[in-house]
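Dear support,

We are seeing what looks like truncated structure output for some complexes. This example has two components. We would appreciate it if you could run it in full and send us the complete token output so we can diff it against ours.
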Amino acid sequence: MNESGTGADFRAKSNLTALITTALIYPAVLLFSAIGEKNIFELAAILAVGVVLQISIMIVIHIFLALKTTQEPDDERDHDLARRASHVSGTVMTSSVVIVLLIMLVRAMIATVSSGGETNVDLWPLYGIFGSLILSELVRYTITARGYRVD
Amino acid sequence: MKATKVSNQIRTLRFHADEMTQQDLATRIGVSRQTVVAIEKAKYSPSLELAFKIARVFEVPLETVFSFEEEQFIAK
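Here is the complete output from our reference environment:
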């Protein structure tokens, strides 16, 4: 018995569509943004085009999938897969943010030293990212602590 | 996805239950057919609640549906 035509198949194909469109569109958006001198409005426009393009493709494919497959409510395996994916992507996200934070910090230090000790670098992104990391860690430890007390 | 350590007799039990389809079983326990496929192939270990639901469908004890290898159970 093949596995096509099920509700889970819809979710699997929907996820695959998101993976492929994200893998194709956003690296191109990033590359196009990084090439040449662009002002903030051009960068915003490039990002907007990427987002609209992905949403449009997703809508068309989802309509096609909805017609071709039957949809069922999520079950425990879907939740388990989503939880595992979120855990791994969260770790990747946190690691990436820490690396970017460190690079920004080193660049700010170099800029300060080369300007004779005067800090001319706008540090609010550093504070913002650092604050986000603190918040996410607080949430993680709070949920874990609550889990040990309640569950 | 690698196979779990819990094996099962769902395929055999379905066959003996008037050749119940995977979709029938999935509908009765409230999951998708792909989840039944994954459980049958031992690629997904169901929750205890779902395991009991499956056993209840076939009207057999849980141990008849699922088993765990003894040597894997003994702590080294």
